[in-house]
Amino acid sequence: MAFLSGFQRLIRHTPLLNSHFTSIRLNSTLTSPKLFVSGLSRLTTDEKLTEAFSPFGQLTEAKVIIDRASGRSKGFAFVSYATVEEAEKAREGMNAKFLDGWVIFVDPAKPREPRPPPQSQSEQPQTGFTVNKTVGWCG
């Protein structure tokens, strides 16, 4: 833990490194009005996200991604604006800021990659093992 805090202090007080990491994060230009927000608290809701990002322009969507099993936030969200200019203002204004006690990072959202279609039972390769699909206890 002490090593980590010392390392963070070194990065924070080294102007060359600090400006290098900041420039990497801010150099990518926005091509769509959709933003990816990471580093969210597990307690952040859609309403809190909307409240934090609404001063930068007209929001079309603010959605915290929820885990299906636990019903809690996965720690990231997507925010969409009406125009790319509003999204750029929000990115500059909210990147590396505190929201619900956590530092959040705002980056351009990447397009979703298509998933391969699920394989049917007959298309799965045979490995030599068979699965017993009997339901209940026999015997």
Automatic annotation (TrEMBL):
Pfam family, one: RRM_1
Residue ranges of the region described as Disordered: 109-131
Name recorded for this polypeptide: Organelle RRM domain-containing protein 2, mitochondrial
Name of the gene: LOC101497496
GO molecular function: RNA binding
PANTHER family xrefs: NUCLEOLAR PROTEIN 8 (PTHR48029), RNA-BINDING (RRM_RBD_RNP MOTIFS) FAMILY PROTEIN (PTHR48029:SF3)
Keywords assigned: RNA-binding
Domain (RRM): residue spans on this chain: 33-111
PROSITE patterns with a match to the protein in the record: RRM (PS50102)
Taxonomic superkingdom: Eukaryota
